[in-house]
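Q: What would this chain look like folded?
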Amino acid sequence: MSLDGFESFEFSHAGATRTVYRRGRGPGVVVMHEIPGITPQVAQFARRVTEAGFTVYLPHLFGVPGKPISNGYVLGQMARACISREFAVLARREASPITEWLRALCRAAHAECGGPGVGAVGMCLTGNFAIALMVDASVMAPVLSQPSLPFGISRAHRAALHVSDEALAVAKQRAAAGCTVLALRFTADPLCPAARFATLAREFGPHFEAIEIDSSPGNPHGIKRTAHSVLTTDLVDADGHPTRAALDRVLGLFRDKLQQG
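A: My prediction, written as structure tokens:
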């Protein structure tokens, strides 16, 4: 089973209770899974984080934990997210309400694990959540993997960051104080457009680090144009592959920001 070796517990905040899967030792890293849920590939990424010396907190946000990915499963969970009150999939200058609960989880992970702070990885639908979580001082290593909200129904939506102006201002202050913002995408991915990375670069300046992996036709690594999930489904775990280099950089950021000594 893909979640073998994880323990689970219930975490409550502001009247909402969700299951969280935990594994590992060391500083905390909150992994926010992508659509359609905690797939075997997401669980494998979480294991890699624990093997690097961290405690992973993997909250169950939607889907069926451990269920393999399929087209029907993806479409079904996408539809559920679109009508959920917890996810504001078209909001350009407002974060999804579920980020309040996730910030509380980050604080709890920091209190439990200690150290300078925690890491936070968002993927796809949850990708930009990492910016909203930076409002909390516990978050020291935010990672945005193929951030896909808001959905790109207009030019303005494709460039937006799915965060309020107030939260963005705090995130920029924290970045300037040493909280590097790391973001990953495939260049041909329509769900995570280049305009969004341009906005991140403009807002965070030298404190923003972009990893954009070539998925154009004829790219040297044969990456398909439909590639989307840098750290999970489309990861090629081989030396010299750009997705493996991206994974290594994510783990390196966690080491730099969260491990003492």
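The first strand starts at residue 7 and ends at 13.
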